[in-house]
Each structure stands twice: as C-alpha cells, then as structure tokens.
Amino acid sequence: MTTAPLGPDALVRLVAGALLQYPGDRFHDELPRLRAALTGASPEPAALLRAFLDETETLAPLALCERYTNTFDTRNRRCLYLTWWTDGDTRRRGLSLVRLKRIYRDFGLEYAGEELPDFLPVALEFAALREEAGTELLQEHRAGLELLRLALAESGGPYAPVLTAVCATLPGPSPETKAEARALAASGPPQELVGAGTALEPFGPGLDAPEDLPVALRGGGPAPRDLPWPALPERLPA
C-alpha cells in the first residue's frame, strides 16, 4: 500500500495521540519508533514531545500506568473525550458520537475501534491522516482542548506538554486563561468540515465521561490497518 508522507503537524498529532493512550506494558518498546517519527515533525511541538519521552522513559511500566489513570479524571476537569466538553452526559452526546463516525467514514476511514470515536487519540489520528478536515474537527473542539491543556498545567501534571504540542498544530495562539478558552466556545465552531457536508453545531459544558479502551482506525485508500498501541501508520520510521 503506497501512501503520501505525513506533514510536520500531522506527525506531532500522531505521536501525541499515541502518548495520550493508556501506556500499558509496551510503551518502552515503542520509544524508538516514537522518537523516529518526531524527526520530521514541527520543531517546537516536537521538542515538547521529546522532553515528555525523556522524562517518561525513566519510569517503570506500572508507574506510567498509575500516573496516567491519576491524571485523566472527569472530576478534576481532565477528560480525554471531546464530546464530554461539548455535550456532557446528555442524549445529544450520542448523536455527536454517531456524527463523528460519519465524518470519519466521509473521509475514507471506517471506524473499527472499541473506543468511543470522540476519544482524543482517535481524533488526533484522524487529524493526522486527513489533515485539513482533521484540523477543522479539532478547531471545533478547541475550547475543550484548551481547557484540558490549562487544567493539566494547573495541576502540574506531566501530560501538559503533550496537550500544548497538540494545540500548537492549530491556527492562532492558545488562550492563556480558562475564561479566554470558554470564550472560544461562545464564538462558535466552523460551520462545516471541508468536503464532508456535515454541519457543526456549538454545545455546552460536559458532565461525565466513559472509561478508557484501546484505539483503532481502519479504512480504505491511504488509511492505516488496525495496529497495536500506538496506532502509528506503518509508513513511519521503524
């Protein structure tokens, strides 16, 4: 299968998505591949991700897993599910999840994971493989991403640089305060994804989120096959 190379921002998103998945026992085995993928990535966010890798490389697998589960918690407004920030625990959220699957399908990626389609690593994989449409999707959820980034920074947690790297791939500067991030939601998202014909609507704050599960995207054309964690396309350096 021949595929086009990923751009500098796409590489940042793909590696960041891998780092935001539950580390499990394979994290250290994947470190060389993750570092190699950052060779062609955008310099400033890549530096943030390398620093994260340097720091986490020294930790044992059990410590990494414990740190992950202690970091991402809806009670402390540190949630990795995008529609948690927009729909909360409402019926509307179910419609948003269906819509996300349709967006992935519209761009040639048939979602095949056990994870919910709004899990941030899933969205980041989509935003790497379909960069223009994925950028607009992330922009739609920019307020939630920035609020998560600020919450991680406020808590002093280790994952704040990963979210900072993700936000650096989006147009415009990141907000400096939670009030500025919430103002993004009030301004409204883009009206439709390029080429998807899928209308976007603004939503309100979230309340609850489901448990973490593995990620997999599968599709035709240049989409990747199901891969073990991390879900990096096979064209990345080994």
Written description of the protein model:
The protein is built from 11 helices and 2 strands; from the N terminus they run H-H-H-H-H-H-E-H-H-H-H-H-E. It has 238 residues and is mostly helical. It has one domain (8-219): Orthogonal Bundle (TorD-like). It is globular. Helix 3 packs antiparallel against helix 10 (160-168). Helix content is 51%, strand content 3%.
| CATH architecture term | Orthogonal Bundle
Q: Enumerate the strands of the largest sheet in spatial order, edge to edge or round the barrel.
A: 1-2
Q: Name the shape in a single word.
A: globular
What is the percent of helical residues?
Answer: 40-55%
Q: How many distinct domains?
A: 1
Number of strands: 2
Mean pLDDT: 75
Poorly predicted sequence stretches spanning 5 or more consecutive residues: 186-230
Q: Beta-strand percentage?
A: under 5%
Q: What is the tally of helical segments? A: 11
Content-based structural category: mainly alpha
Characterize the largest beta sheet: strand count, sense, and whether it forms a barrel: 2 strands, antiparallel
What's the Cα radius of gyration?
Answer: 16 Å
Distance between the termini: 17 Å
SSE order in H/E notation?
Answer: HHHHHHEHHHHHE
CATH topology type: TorD-like
This entry's quaternary arrangement is single chain
CATH class: Mainly Alpha
